[in-house]
User: Which sequence fits this backbone?
């Protein structure tokens, strides 16, 4: 998705839920063409931080993730794979996908304790990751960057059987064969992000919850790789205390003891989290971040509705921060002062939540853009410097490149041309991994230069 001016600096998508059969990841960067580049060496694939919330909250999160679909429909039973989980790839596999999948499998084995491995030739795969051109995937699920479905083996098979019981998660008694569909002609980072979220959902929880600040299981798309919380959810999903076919009450009765064993640091007080967001919230998010019709007026109305719902529900979690973030985003180009006030509130909320440092970094990126475009390069650099550590930990290459390019423009504006040139050079590996095609890298570079030029004229 390509937006204009300051708004273009946050690549969040229209979060329209997909139909009930598939579990999807929303659009991140639809215009990027494929790039055959590995992840920059600076991303080590380190373990995610341990959850920082109580087991009382985490228990409720697990039940809402495992027994609900993104559509809101309830699932009758827990399902998972029996035995080793074998993963195969098919189709037009991007070169970077194999490296990123290898790193993901290593994390799943080491952090979630799962017996996951690549399928050998001739073995029946538990999960098949099939790569197709984005245009083919869009014809099936227009709002999704990638998605996962049970039983169907190919995209044409899924297209034929869609909206039937054959590909309905609710009809499963156990997981035996799951397919993930990923675009082959997008940026390496988007491919990696799809692998993380969709492989995790192919194996474990199927839902996304806007209230989670420390998880990829959230359609706000701030987290792009699996977190410590996500690994705990998978570890719980495959714990020996649970089994295929258990209903929600049976699982709930075992979770306190199970979580005490797997997450002893969470054994303290805590309160249950708020309820799942109503359907009207999802509709408001879709409107606020839409690139399809409605225009600026529709996006502003959606953002207003998000904030109204968040306040009416009494939310103090990431949904309130997201509502303020949406407010800032829709006003950034036309009313910078209103945007700054909204972003400041979003940052306040995010900095009070566990696992939300990347959310706060997104706010800092927006604030840096506003500072750069208003002729305040020193202020822009302060916002960038504060955001960089969290962005590196989150392994978000496109965001890291954007911040580095913004700082380079700020350095130029303050007479530090040598530092600016070094930043531009150092940003290139991240930009190529994050944005893909050189044309996309140049476009992002030009957008940021235009912000700085506007600031120079102010």
Assistant:
């Amino acid at each position: 998705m390509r937006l204009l001016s300051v708004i273009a600096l946050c690549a969040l998508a229209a979060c329209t839920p997909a139909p009930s059969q598939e579990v999807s990841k929303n659009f991140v960067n639809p215009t990027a063409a494929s790039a055959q580049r590995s992840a920059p060496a600076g991303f080590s694939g380190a373990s995610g931080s341990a959850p920082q919330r109580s087991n009382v909250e985490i228990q409720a999160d697990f039940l809402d993730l495992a027994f609900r679909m993104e559509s809101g429909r309830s699932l009758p039973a827990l399902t998972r794979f029996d035995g080793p989980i074998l993963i195969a790839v098919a189709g037009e596999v991007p070169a970077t996908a194999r490296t990123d999948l290898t790193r993901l499998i290593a994390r799943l084995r080491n952090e979630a304790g799962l017996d996951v491995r690549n399928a050998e030739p001739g073995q029946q795969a538990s999960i098949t990751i099939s790569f197709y051109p984005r245009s083919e995937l869009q014809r099936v699920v227009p709002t999704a960057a990638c998605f996962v479905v049970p039983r169907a083996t190919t995209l044409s098979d899924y297209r034929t059987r869609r909206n039937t019981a054959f590909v309905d998660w609710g009809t499963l008694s156990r997981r035996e064969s799951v397919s993930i569909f990923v675009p082959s002609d997008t940026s390496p980072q988007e491919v990696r992000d799809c692998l993380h979220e969709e492989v995790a959902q192919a194996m474990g929880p199927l839902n996304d919850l806007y209230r989670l600040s420390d998880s990829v299981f959230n359609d706000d798309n701030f987290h792009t790789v699996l977190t410590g919380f996500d690994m705990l959810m998978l570890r719980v999903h495959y714990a020996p205390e649970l089994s295929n076919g258990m209903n929600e009450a049976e699982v709930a009765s075992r979770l306190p003891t199970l979580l005490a064993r797997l997450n002893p640091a969470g054994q303290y007080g805590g309160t249950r989290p708020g309820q799942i967001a109503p359907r009207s919230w999802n509709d408001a998010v879709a409107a606020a971040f839409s690139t399809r019709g409605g225009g600026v007026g529709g996006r502003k109305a959606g953002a207003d509705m998000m904030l109204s719902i968040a306040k009416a529900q009494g939310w103090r979690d990431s949904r309130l921060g997201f509502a303020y973030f949406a407010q800032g985003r829709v006003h950034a180009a036309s009313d910078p002062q209103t945007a700054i006030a909204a972003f400041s509130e979003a940052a306040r909320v995010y900095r009070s939540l566990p696992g939300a440092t990347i959310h706060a970094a997104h706010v800092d990126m927006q604030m840096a853009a506003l500072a750069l475009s208003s002729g305040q390069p020193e202020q822009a650099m302060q916002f960038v410097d504060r955001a960089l550590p969290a962005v590196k930990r989150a392994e978000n290459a496109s965001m890291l490149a954007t911040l580095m390019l913004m700082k380079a423009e700020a350095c130029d504006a303050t007479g530090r041309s040598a530092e600016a040139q070094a930043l531009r050079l150092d940003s290139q590996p991240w930009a190529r991994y994050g944005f893909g095609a050189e044309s996309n890298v140049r476009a992002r570079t030009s957008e940021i230069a235009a912000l700085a030029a506007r600031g120079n004229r102010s």
Q: What stands out?
A: The CA atoms of residues 26 and 74 lie 21 Å apart. The longest helix spans residues 438-457.
